[in-house]
Design brief:
It is a single chain. The protein has about 150 residues and is an alpha+beta fold. It has a single domain, classed as Helix Hairpins (Orthogonal Bundle), CATH 1.10.287.4300. It contains 3 helices and 5 strands. Strand 3 and strand 4 form a beta hairpin.
Length: about 150
């Protein structure tokens, strides 16, 4: 079902297909195991972000948008692309520590990390949280780390 949404109280309306847009905060990917899970998570994350950027570009390029709304949309685009870059960087850093795969999902004040491993020692989870903290500026206590075989 298409729904009209108004971005930040602007007079600009954008039609959004609710079937194809999900929140970045939702758990992504199927509950299958192995490498496929991590690939599916990244593909879903990238698809969601691409759709969000597409909508924001429509708002930013709409001549009926106020300057304030256009500026906010452009800032949101930059934030999304920055987050994607950090997520990818962190995933590579975690894999450099010897894990087969990892997926990172950043939110504004927290992060979730899923590593491909049968289990994690507390010390391993703390090291991963420290990697995320250094790359993002988040407190290690705001980083949730879990293993997925």
């Amino acid at each position: 079902m298409l729904k009209k949404e108004v971005y930040k109280h602007s007079p600009v309306e954008v039609k959004v297909d609710e079937k194809n847009v999900t929140s970045r905060r939702q758990q992504v990917g199927p509950q299958n195991g192995g490498k496929e899970f991590f690939v599916d998570c990244r593909l879903t994350r990238d698809r969601i972000c691409s759709r969000q950027i597409e909508i924001l570009k429509e708002i930013a390029n709409n001549p009926d948008s106020s300057a304030e709304v256009r500026d906010r949309a452009q800032k949101d685009i930059m934030q999304i692309t920055d987050s994607l870059g950090k997520e990818t960087e962190i995933e590579k850093l975690i894999m450099a520590r010897g894990y087969k795969d990892a997926v990172v999902m950043l939110q504004s004040k927290m992060a979730t990390v899923i590593v491909q491993a049968p289990s994690l020692l507390r010390s391993d989870a703390e090291r991963i949280a420290e990697i995320v903290a250094r790359a993002t500026g988040l407190e290690p206590g705001n980083v949730f780390v879990m293993a997925k075989p």
